[in-house]
Design a protein that fits this description.
By secondary structure, the chain is mainly beta. The chain contains 6 helices and 43 strands.
C-alpha cells in the first residue's frame, strides 16, 4: 500500500496500524450424534494439520480469496469435507456433527458475499441476547449498547437512534412490520417487548442509510427472523422478574415445524426499588407461535401469531425524595390517594406464503392483522410537603423542620383506544447469474382508529389554584385580594376521534456486485413511494404522496488491509401514523405532512487481528437535514406532537465500534458516539431537540474464570449525557430548557454453566438430558447510580421559586435466574 492510501485510511479511521496475514480463519466445535464434543479430530488443509481439543474446539488458518478444502478425519468416525472461499481475515464458524453410521455430507461450499457488511448492517448473535443482563433483557437491551442508539430508561424497551424518537424506528419479524401499544406513557407500564428472544434465529440492525426495501421511517430498521426448527427441543427460563418457556416441534416427514413461546413478566422487583412506595400488581403475559409448512420444494407457507395481555394496576402510597446540596439538604414528601388501572390487549396474526417460480425468481404474499384495545384510567391525588431536613439520612415528612412549600395535585384520565391495522403485500425477487438482483413490492394498509381522550390535572399550591399557563386569566393575588376569575384545571385535554387511514406503498430496488479494477464493488439503487389519505367522522384529509429515492455504494479495495468503504443515503419520508396526527389538545389534523430527511452516511469497516484473534473496527459519519418536522415533547416514553409540520431540524454525528474476542471464544464490544441534533420551530432559531444525546459510551463484555471456565461473567455498561427533558410541563423551550443529569448504569451477571455444547456428560448422569443448563445471579445498577427520567416541579410559596425534584429510576436490584434447554 502506498503512502497516500495509508494517509487516507488514517484520516478516515483515526486509528493506528495493525498488521496481519492474508489468511482467513475457520473455527468451531465438533460434536457427535449425542451432542458430545469430539476430541482428536484431524483437520487438514493444504498441508496444514490441526486437531480438536478435549472440548471439541478447533481453529485453522486457510488461504484467502481462493477455494480450498478442509478434511475432517477421526479414528472411529466417518470422514467429512468442507470447501470454503473466504475473504482476507474473514472468520467462518463451522460446527459439524460426525458419526459412524449415517452418510455424511459430501462437500459444503461456502462463498461469502459480504452482504451485510457492505450494507452497514449489524448482526447480533441470538445466544448473546439471552446472556446479557438488563432490567429489560432482550434484543432492545443489546441495541442500547450499539453506537448511535440511546435510551435513559431501563424500564422501557424504546430507543432513539441518531436524533430520532421512539416512533421513528422500524421493527420487522419475518418480514412483517410489528407495532407497539399507543397509550403507554411510562416504561414500567410496557411489560413485554413484541420480540420473544426464545424464538429468534437472526437479528439485523441498521442505524441509518438503509435500503429502499425497508419501510417509511426516518431513523432505523430492526429486522428479526424467527427460527425454523429441524428437531424437537424445549427451553425455559425463570427469574424473580418472571419466566418463559418455548418448544420446537417437527413432524416426522419434516414438512411441518413450529416454535411456540410463552412469557410472563412482573416488574414489582424493579418498581419497588424506586422512591415511591406502592401497591403494584402487574400482569404482563403473551403467547407467540411461528408455524411453517413446506407444501413442496417450491412452495412454503408460514404463520406468525401473538396474543398479549398487559394489565397494570398501580396504587401509589408515599414518596420521599432527597435533593439539594450538602449545605442545604432538602426533601419532598408526598402522600397519595387513588389508583391507576391500565390494560393493553393486543392480537397479531400474519400469514406468509413463498413460491419459487423458477430457480432465480421468487414471489411472496404476506397478509397481517393487528388489533389492540387499550385503556388508561386513573385518579391520583398527591399531597406534598417541601422543606429543609435536619437529618441528611432521613427524608420523611416528620423530619422536615422548615416547610417551604405545601400543596396538592389531582390527576384524572379516562383514555380508551381501539385500533385495527390490516396489511396485504406482494413481494418479488429476481436474480441473474451476473450477481444482479431486482427486488420489488406493493402493499396496501388500512388503519382504523377509535380513540377517546379525557385527561386533566388540577394543581393547588398553599391554597392557590394554579391556572393553566396557556390561558390568559386575571392575576391570582390571594389572600391580599379576592380572585374573581374562573377556576380551571392546569391541563385539560378532551377529544373523541374516529379515523380511517388508507395507504398504498411499494418499492423497487436493483442490487449489483461487480469489480472496479481489482477492487470489488456493490451498489443498491432503489426508490419507495407511499400514498395515503386520512378520513373520519368529523375530518377529511387530502390525498398525499411521497417518493423516496435511496442508494448505497460500497467498495472493497484490493489492499493488504481488509477494508470496506461505504456511502449511503437518499431521501427518507415518514408519513404520519395516528399518534403523529393528534395535536396537544387531542384533536386530529388529517393533513399533517410526511416528515422529510435527506440522509447521508459515510462508513468504514475494518477487519484485523489483534492478539492473534479477530477484531472489527467500524466508523460511521452521518448527517440528516430534516424538513416538515413535526415537533414533539417526551414525558417518560410518551410522545406528544404539535402536528403542524412547522419546523426544520438537523442531526449530525459520528459513531465508533470495536468488537472482537477480547477474551478467546467470546465476543465483546465497545461503542462510542457523538450526536448533535437541533430544531428550528417557526423560525425562532435552533435549539436542542428532546433527543439531543450528545455523548454515548457503552460496553458489552463477556468473560469466564480461567481456572473455572464454567463460571461466566457478563457486563453491560451504558453512559449517556443528559437529555433536555427536565423542564416544567408547558414551558416554552425557547424561554427555558433544562437538561437531566447524565445517565450511568452498569448491569452485571454471573452464571454457573452446568451444561453447554462443550460439556461432556456421562450417560448415567441426570444432566445428560440437557443441552444447556445454567444458574445465574444478576445485579442491576451495580453502583446504585441515581438516574432521573423526568423532574417534578414544586413551588416555594416564600421565594416564589420552583424546584426540580428528580424522578429517579431503579436503584440497585439483585435477581436470580435459571436457564435450561433440552
Amino acid at each position: 500500500m502506498n503512502n497516500s492510501k495509508l494517509i487516507f485510511v488514517f484520516l478516515f479511521l483515526c486509528i493506528g496500524y495493525f498488521s496481519f496475514a492474508q489468511n482467513a480463519h475457520v473455527k468451531g466445535v465438533i460434536l457427535d450424534n449425542e451432542n458430545r464434543p469430539v476430541a482428536d479430530v484431524n483437520i487438514a488443509c493444504l498441508g496444514i494439520v490441526t486437531q480438536s481439543n478435549s472440548d471439541g474446539f478447533f481453529e485453522i488458518d486457510v488461504p484467502s480469496n481462493k477455494k480450498v478444502s478442509l478434511i475432517f478425519t477421526h479414528i472411529s468416525l466417518k470422514m467429512m469435507s468442507l470447501s470454503v472461499s473466504l475473504k482476507s481475515n474473514e472468520v467462518f464458524i463451522f460446527n459439524p456433527r460426525m458419526n459412524n453410521s449415517e452418510e455424511q455430507m459430501g462437500e459444503v461450499f461456502v462463498s461469502s458475499k459480504n452482504r451485510k457488511r457492505v450494507q452497514g448492517i449489524v448482526t447480533v448473535d441470538a445466544a448473546t441476547i439471552k446472556k446479557i443482563p438488563g432490567a429489560n433483557a432482550g434484543i432492545e437491551n443489546i441495541l442500547k449498547t450499539l453506537p448511535g442508539v440511546n435510551s435513559n430508561n431501563e424500564l422501557s424497551t424504546q430507543y432513539a437512534v441518531r436524533g430520532g424518537n421512539y416512533d421513528e424506528n422500524l421493527v420487522y419479524v419475518n418480514e412483517v412490520e410489528v407495532y407497539r401499544p399507543f397509550l403507554i406513557r411510562s416504561g414500567q407500564q410496557e411489560g413485554l417487548s413484541f420480540t420473544n428472544t426464545d424464538l429468534v434465529q437472526n437479528v439485523d440492525f441498521s442505524a441509518g442509510g438503509f435500503q429502499a426495501k425497508f419501510g417509511d421511517k426516518l431513523s432505523s430498521v430492526l429486522d428479526i427472523t424467527y427460527r425454523k426448527p429441524t428437531e424437537f427441543g424445549a427451553a425455559f427460563e425463570a427469574s424473580l422478574l418472571g419466566g418463559s418457556a418455548a418448544v420446537d416441534l417437527v413432524s416426522k416427514n419434516k414438512k411441518w415445524s413450529a416454535v411456540t413461546g410463552v412469557r410472563y413478566r412482573n416488574n414489582s422487583l424493579l418498581v419497588n426499588s424506586q422512591d415511591t412506595e406502592t401497591n403494584y400488581t402487574p400482569t404482563f403475559a403473551d403467547v407467540q407461535t411461528n408455524i411453517n409448512y413446506d407444501i413442496s420444494e417450491k412452495w412454503q407457507i408460514s404463520f406468525l401469531g401473538n396474543v398479549s395481555q398487559n394489565k397494570y394496576l398501580y396504587q401509589p402510597l408515599t414518596r420521599q425524595t432527597k435533593f439539594g446540596t450538602i449545605d442545604q439538604p432538602m426533601a419532598l414528601a408526598v402522600y397519595y390517594e387513588g389508583q391507576e388501572k391500565d390494560k393493553y390487549d393486543t392480537y397479531f396474526g400474519a400469514l406468509k406464503t413463498t413460491y419459487k417460480v423458477s430457480p432465480d425468481f421468487t414471489l411472496k404474499l404476506i397478509g397481517s392483522l393487528f388489533h389492540t384495545t387499550e385503556q388508561e384510567h386513573f385518579d391520583i391525588l398527591a399531597q406534598y410537603r417541601l422543606g429543609n431536613v435536619n437529618d441528611e439520612e432521613s427524608t420523611t415528612a416528620d423530619n422536615i423542620d422548615f416547610t417551604r412549600g405545601i400543596g396538592s395535585q389531582l390527576n384524572h384520565a379516562r383514555n380508551d383506544l381501539d385500533a385495527l391495522i390490516a396489511n396485504i403485500e406482494i413481494k418479488g425477487i429476481k436474480e441473474w447469474k451476473n450477481d444482479s438482483q431486482l427486488e420489488f413490492a406493493l402493499k396496501y394498509t388500512r388503519e382504523s382508529i377509535r380513540d377517546r381522550v379525557v385527561e386533566w390535572e388540577a394543581i393547588d399550591s398553599a391554597g392557590f389554584s394554579i391556572n393553566p399557563p396557556i390561558v390568559i386569566l386575571p392575576t391570582n393575588t390571594q389572600p391580599y385580594q379576592p380572585y374573581t376569575g374562573p377556576l380551571l384545571p392546569y391541563q385539560d385535554v378532551r377529544a373523541t376521534n374516529y379515523n380511517t387511514i388508507n395507504r398504498f406503498s411499494g418499492y423497487t430496488q436493483f442490487n449489483k456486485k461487480t469489480e472496479l479494477g481489482s477492487s470489488q464493488v456493490w451498489y443498491h439503487l432503489g426508490a419507495r413511494f407511499q400514498s395515503w389519505n386520512v378520513s373520519g367522522a368529523t375530518v377529511e384529509g387530502k390525498d398525499q404522496i411521497v417518493v423516496s429515492p435511496r442508494a448505497q455504494f460500497a467498495i472493497q479495495p484490493d489492499w493488504d488491509m481488509d477494508m470496506v468503504f461505504r456511502i449511503s443515503g437518499g431521501l427518507y419520508h415518514q408519513p404520519p401514523f395516528y399518534r403523529e396526527l393528534r395535536d396537544l389538545d387531542g384533536v386530529v389534523n388529517p393533513n399533517v405532512k410526511a416528515q422529510e430527511s435527506v440522509h447521508i452516511v459515510l462508513g468504514n469497516d475494518y477487519n484485523f487481528k489483534m492478539w492473534n484473534r479477530p477484531f472489527k473496527w467500524v466508523t460511521e459519519i452521518y448527517y440528516k437535514s430534516l424538513s416538515d418536522v413535526n415537533v414533539y415533547s417526551i414525558d417518560n416514553v410518551r410522545i406528544r406532537y404539535v402536528a403542524n409540520n412547522n419546523a426544520k431540524a438537523y442531526a449530525q454525528g459520528v459513531d465508533f465500534r470495536l468488537n472482537g474476542e477480547f477474551v478467546p471464544g467470546t465476543e465483546s464490544w465497545v461503542s462510542f458516539g457523538y450526536l448533535k441534533t437541533e430544531e428550528n420551530y417557526e423560525n425562532k432559531g435552533y435549539i436542542a431537540r428532546p433527543t439531543d444525546q450528545r455523548l454515548k459510551f457503552a460496553m458489552l463484555f463477556q468473560d469466564y474464570m480461567p481456572n473455572i471456565p464454567s463460571v461466566k461473567l457478563y457486563l453491560n455498561l451504558v453512559y449517556n449525557t443528559g437529555l433536555p427533558g427536565g423542564a416544567p410541563a408547558y414551558s416554552d423551550p425557547y424561554v427555558y430548557q433544562n437538561r437531566l443529569n447524565d445517565y450511568r448504569r452498569v448491569d452485571v451477571g454471573f452464571a454457573k454453566v452446568f451444561v453447554d455444547s462443550s460439556t461432556k456428560i456421562a450417560k448415567t448422569n441426570w444432566l445428560k438430558n440437557f443441552k444447556e443448563l445454567s444458574v445465574g445471579l444478576e445485579i442491576f445498577n451495580l453502583f446504585n447510580n441515581q438516574n432521573a427520567i423526568t423532574n417534578t416541579w414544586v413551588r416555594d410559596v416564600y421565594s416564589k421559586n420552583e424546584y426540580a425534584i428528580p424522578n429517579y429510576m431503579t436503584s440497585r436490584v439483585f435477581n436470580v435466574k435459571i436457564n435450561a434447554r433440552l
